[in-house]
């Protein structure tokens, strides 16, 4: 039985000496590139025994290349999911102080990075947020069916419900600590120092200072600020549970502080003095400035909304749902909860929750639209994410999974969200919706609003406006959509190709002397197809290519070109199947069925894109003569690498024959370089 991707990954990891022997792992167009602690313990014969492994090449004294063909990204992903590999991958990047950006750049790169920063800050804790939000949903259901009052004081609730509240509060209350870690890691600072900074504000020692603090009345009746003085500087002792604005800004400051310290402190003592000085500076700075600033900003917004309501409840109903999409990502919406509770206790009703429902249901409309789009595209990962977030929202009134999982990740989704917020808010304003209980705005808490009919119309308008905009106009930019669709198609094709290669290899192993391209009983050779040269230069036989794997034909069959020009062109019409950001290699699937890999230079992946300009992106349609990549031969040679460029047919095992048309001399762009003969199925008599 053919091996699965995971089984092959486990085999590779085992024969490489286990995760403890691997110091780093990357991949290029066709190969897994390992750096190992001890190369001598690797049994290359056993490693090569899996049919999915197309070849093994040692590189230097610590490097090992395992050739996997077009499905290399699948195996790379599977390897990193195995126990111990996540830590190794992180270790290779630790301490680099390098901010990472993996999204599609738009016109405003800073805005793109800000959205990705917020998204990647919350994405690692999304599972915990989803789990906690569904626990809240169960508690709200219990409240709806009068089994237990959700808002009853915890000390008066049965022990079972107290434990259940602890289960969801463990995530939302301590969210600042998690956010501190993930934000720091995203920026390139140490994640554990990023977590320790907000964690200091949750310690009994910090919160215990309330006992010696001065009580200062706030603008909200019955609420006080607690102030102590540190070296004559006032410090506010307050509850930071659920506040994400302070840890995010603390992580940003930490990144620059840590980066600066590493420049002036000798590397030999980084581990001792860098975290020490960072904590020494950042914890007081966060307690004295960053934290109070974040909470104060939220309180100011709450009072501003109260002022607007005094002028015109209708205007407030429109403003609230338009503000919430920008308040929630930074945690600035939490102070509004106190205003809602005070309103209900003093006025008997609240004027914020009703309009807030327009924001929530516009958000749930977006995420439900994503469910439909993902189902249409057969995008399993996004479908699972969006469905869970949709259920958490519609049944539990929890917007965070939708926000952090989709809205902040794909900035175009805000263009679908805000129209729903606006129109839903207008309806809420027309009916002057009021809430008579503090609830999470979901389908199950509609009876808390008055008038119910007006509220239902308002949330329906918000939901279906955003839902339909997503379904018909998508939630991504065209670049993000094309990249995701191409990735889905490439992964599916890579999986099929890997399976075909395993089956072919297994069949070849069972037939003595059988060739990988042998014709089956029901196959004949078709009409040969000529593939033009994608670049100009001197023709070099593949066997003379200065790389073992290429020379042996383990990656594919074809020929190499020592370039005289500076641009690679599409040799025929087709589709870009792989376009590495480094620009060193590009994969095409031509309309005639030939899959082509053009690898510019040898080991040029190590140049990290310096000297290469990529003109196309993955999934893009190209025509004969379309420029694909420009490169600087002088830079390649100055970096110590050979510019010789293999031009390979990677699906040669599915063809009857692949033959170079030239073995020497020179070739111009578009001149015939390789001849590929397809296999054709024939009907059995």
UniProtKB/TrEMBL annotation:
Annotated PTS EIIB type-1 domain residues: 6-89
Q: What's one GO-annotated cellular component?
A: plasma membrane
Membrane-spanning residues: 125-145, 240-257, 269-295, 301-327, 334-352, 358-375, 417-440, 452-475
Q: Keywords on this record?
A: Cell membrane, Kinase, Membrane, Phosphotransferase system, Sugar transport, Transferase, Transmembrane, Transmembrane helix, Transport
**Compartments, record wording:** Cell membrane
Q: Where is the active site?
A: 28
Which positions fall inside the PTS EIIC type-1 domain? Answer: 116-487
What residue stretches are annotated with the PTS EIIA type-1 domain? 547-651
Q: What InterPro entries does UniProt report for this protein, alphabetically?
A: Dup_hybrid_motif (IPR011055), Glu_permease_IIB (IPR036878), PTrfase_EIIB_Cys (IPR018113), PTS_EIIA_1_perm (IPR001127), PTS_EIIC (IPR003352), PTS_EIIC_1 (IPR013013), PTS_IIB_1 (IPR001996), PTS_Sugar-Specific_Components (IPR050558)
Q: Which GO terms describe its molecular function?
A: kinase activity; protein-N(PI)-phosphohistidine-sugar phosphotransferase activity
Glycoprotein among keywords: no
Spell out the CDD domains in the cross-references. PTS_IIB_glc
* Keyword Magnesium tagged: no
Domain of life (superkingdom): Bacteria
Instruction: State the Pfam families in the record.
Output: PTS_EIIA_1, PTS_EIIB, PTS_EIIC
One biological process term from GO is: phosphoenolpyruvate-dependent sugar phosphotransferase system
The protein's name: PTS mannose transporter subunit IIABC
The organism is Corynebacterium frankenforstense DSM 45800
